[in-house]
Write a structure and sequence with these properties.
The complex is a heterodimer of chains A (143) and B (110). Chain A is α+β, with helices and mostly antiparallel strands and 143 residues long. Chain A has a single domain, classed as Histidine kinase-like ATPase, C-terminal domain (Heat Shock Protein 90, 2-Layer Sandwich). Chain A is built from four helices and five strands. In chain A, strands 1-2-3-5-4 form a five-stranded antiparallel sheet, covered by helices on one side. In chain A, a hairpin with a 4-residue loop joins β2 and β3. The longest helix of chain A has 22 residues. Chain A starts with 6 loop residues before the first strand and ends with a strand. In chain A, 39% of the residues are buried. Chain B is α/β, with parallel strands linked by helices and 110 residues long. Chain B has one domain: STAS domain (Transcription Regulator spoIIAA, 2-Layer Sandwich). Chain B has four helices and five strands. Chain B has a five-stranded mixed sheet. In chain B, β3, α2 and β4 form a beta-alpha-beta unit. The longest helix of chain B has 18 residues. The radius of gyration of chain B is 13 Å and the shape is globular. The relative contact order of chain B is 0.17. Classes of the chains: A alpha+beta (143), B alpha/beta (110). Chains A and B meet through α1, α2 and α4 of A and α1, α2 and α3 of B.
Chain lengths: 143, 110
C-alpha cells in the first residue's frame, strides 16, 4: 500500500548547467530534517545531479527548457525524487540504460548516468515519450 | 563562479593536477581544456590527478578522468588518481575505472 507523503516540495528551474549544483543542494537541504547519513546525502546529491544533467544535455540539448523537480518523503523514511523535462524524449530507453552507453560521440561523458541513478537508489523508473519529454522517478529508503 | 579549482604543477617528469571543489557537467567543461593543454605541453610520463579536495563528483567527473586516461595513454604515459574521497571512489569503482587507472589513497602516498 502506498504511504501518503508527510512532506513535499516542488521546484521548477531553467535547464542550465549552472543549475545542476543548485538542484542537488536544494534536494539535499530539503531531506535534512530526516537526518540522513553522509553517504545517503552523497548518493542523493549524485543522482539528482545525474538526472538534472540529462535534462540539460540530452532532453533540451543545451538549449532552453524547464526542469520540474518534486521531492517527498513518507513516515517510513522513503524519499521519492521525481525529475521531469518536456524535452526530446529518449529514442531507445533500453540502450540508454546500458552502462557505458552514451549518445555523445566525443566519449567525454561516461555513459554511466542511469547506472549510477539505479545503483545509488532503491528504485528507478523512467517514463519517456519521443518529442514530449522524460520523467525519472527515484526512490531511496533512508536508514 | 565556478566551484572548481585546478592547480597544475610539473616537476621531474611528473605532471600533477590538483583539483578542488565540485566536478559536474558544468565545471568539467573548462577543466578538460586546462588539463589537456598541460598534458600535451609536458607529455609527462606520469600524470597524477589529485582529487583530495573534490567534495563532489558525478559521472561528468568520471568522464573527465576516463577521457584524460585515454589522452595520457595515447602519449605513452600513465595516469594515477590520488586521494579520492570515498564517494568519488565509489563512482570510479562502479564504472570499473579502478581497473584502468591506479588509485592512490592518501595513506599510501605518504
Amino acid at each position: 500500500m502506498k504511504k501518503k507523503p508527510v512532506n513535499e516540495m516542488r521546484l521548477e528551474l531553467d535547464a542550465k548547467s549552472v543549475n545542476e549544483s543548485f538542484a542537488r543542494y536544494a534536494v539535499s537541504a530539503f531531506i535534512c530534517p530526516l537526518d540522513p547519513t553522509v553517504g545517503e546525502v552523497a548518493d542523493i546529491r549524485t543522482v539528482v545531479s545525474e538526472a538534472v544533467t540529462n535534462c540539460v544535455v540530452h532532453a533540451y540539448r543545451e538549449t532552453e527548457g524547464r526542469i520540474y523537480i518534486t521531492v517527498s518523503w513518507d513516515d517510513s523514511r522513503r524519499v521519492k525524487i521525481k525529475i521531469k523535462d518536456k524535452g526530446c524524449g529518449i529514442e531507445d530507453l533500453e540502450q540508454s540504460m546500458q552502462p557505458f552507453w552514451s549518445s555523445d560521440p566525443s566519449g567525454e561523458r561516461g555513459g554511466m548516468g542511469f547506472t549510477i541513478m539505479s545503483s545509488f537508489t532503491d528504485k528507478l523508473t523512467v517514463r519517456t515519450a519521443k518529442g514530449k519529454g522524460t520523467t525519472v522517478t527515484m526512490v531511496k529508503k533512508l536508514v | 563562479m565556478d566551484k572548481i579549482k585546478c592547480d597544475i604543477k610539473y616537476a621531474d617528469g611528473e605532471l600533477r593536477v590538483e583539483l578542488s571543489g565540485e566536478i559536474d557537467h558544468h565545471t568539467a567543461k573548462g577543466l578538460r581544456e586546462r588539463i589537456d593543454t598541460a598534458i600535451f605541453l609536458y607529455r609527462a610520463e606520469s600524470v597524477v590527478l589529485g582529487l583530495g579536495g573534490v567534495g563532489f563528483m558525478d559521472s561528468a567527473g568520471l568522464g573527465l578522468i576516463l577521457g584524460r586516461y585515454a589522452k595520457v595513454r595515447e602519449l605513452g604515459g600513465r595516469l594515477t588518481v590520488a586521494d579520492p574521497t570515498p564517494e568519488a571512489e565509489k563512482i570510479l569503482r562502479l564504472a570499473g575505472a579502478d581497473k584502468l587507472v591506479t588509485i592512490k589513497k592518501r595513506e599510501a602516498v605518504k
